[in-house]
Amino acid sequence: MDLLTEHGVRVETRGNVVSFTDEEDDLVVTTEDGRNFKTDIAVVSTGFVPETDLLQGQVKMDRKGAIITNKYGQSSDPDIYVAGDARTIEYNPTGDFEYIPLATNAVRQGLIAGINVFGNRWPEMGAQGTSAIELFGHTLSTTGLTYARALKAGFDADFSFFEDSYRPGFMPSTEMITIVIVYDKKDLRILGAQFFSKYDVAQSANTLSLAIQNKNTLKDLAFVDMLFQPYYDQPFNYINLAAQEGLKKEGLI
Ligand SMILES: Cc1cc2nc3c(=O)[nH]c(=O)nc-3n(C[C@H](O)[C@H](O)[C@H](O)COP(=O)(O)OP(=O)(O)OC[C@H]3O[C@@H](n4cnc5c(N)ncnc54)[C@H](O)[C@@H]3O)c2cc1C
């Protein structure tokens, strides 16, 4: 929020939008509590729905119209394989099938479906909803559940919080890095993680994506072998350190 405000973005999170009105050169956005915002352009980003009318009534779909497949990408009609934004995918943090319309899922499902039409040889691995965005010179990356979503999904969840320089202070420059790792208190299984830094932390979300898929725990992540070289990180990599914060919170180290 601070980053957006510092760059001249006015952030308003209250009030449902009820209308858009043209007014000379402006577009006026009106909220249900009666406030008006003058703007040049409005982008409505309330989510996606699958466009599956073509197969309505012919294959099984969820209540939003996303096609349900087995782990080989095969719909309820065995002659129809489905990939991409038209279908659901197994969401590994919860084990539920969810609608996660991302190109990363689409390309994997497409390739695997292409293999499986010649005989179901290659089961899918599911997804963590891993993604990243560059925001005013910062990277925000995420995989799996946030803390709020983990609680909503019914986990007895907690999170570790880590904030430090990504590499030693004796280097000519460094940046702060912020990491949140969400875990299940029951068995310390990793459920999600979020990264934020001026340093490029996009690939760190990929590392945690693999950890979630493999059902790794905080214990695994705290001490897994990761490289140290002062150009890149501290003697313990920041991912090790973030997991160790969780172990400290649990009184285990
Ligand atoms: C602005 C934006 C940014 C995004 N950025 C990212 C990102 O950074 N990373 C990421 O992972 N995902 C991103 N996504 C999501 C990503 O684009 C989609 O998940 C992905 O394109 C889905 O691929 P798809 O092949 O299933 O569908 P599409 O790419 O939508 O392709 C479907 C094609 O089918 C055609 N079609 C539809 N109906 C018919 C018909 N009846 N007959 C013939 N053709 C038909 C359509 O014209 C279209 O060409 C972004 C999406 C948007 C909108």
Automatic annotation (TrEMBL):
Matching Pfam families = Pyr_redox_2, Pyr_redox_dim
Domain Pyridine nucleotide-disulphide oxidoreductase dimerisation residues, every copy: 139-230
Q: For the FAD/NAD(P)-binding domain, which residue ranges apply?
A: 2-110
Q: Which UniProt keywords apply?
A: FAD, Flavoprotein, Oxidation, Oxidoreductase, Redox-active center
Give the matching InterPro entries: FAD-bd_OxRdtase, FAD/NAD-bd_sf, FAD/NAD-binding_dom, FAD/NAD-linked_Rdtase_dimer_sf, Pyr_nucl-diS_OxRdtase_dimer
Per the record, the similarity remark reads: Belongs to the class-III pyridine nucleotide-disulfide oxidoreductase family.
PANTHER family per record:
NAD(P)H SULFUR OXIDOREDUCTASE (COA-DEPENDENT), PYRIDINE NUCLEOTIDE-DISULFIDE OXIDOREDUCTASE DOMAIN-CONTAINING
Its protein name is NADH oxidase
**Source species of the chain:** Pediococcus stilesii
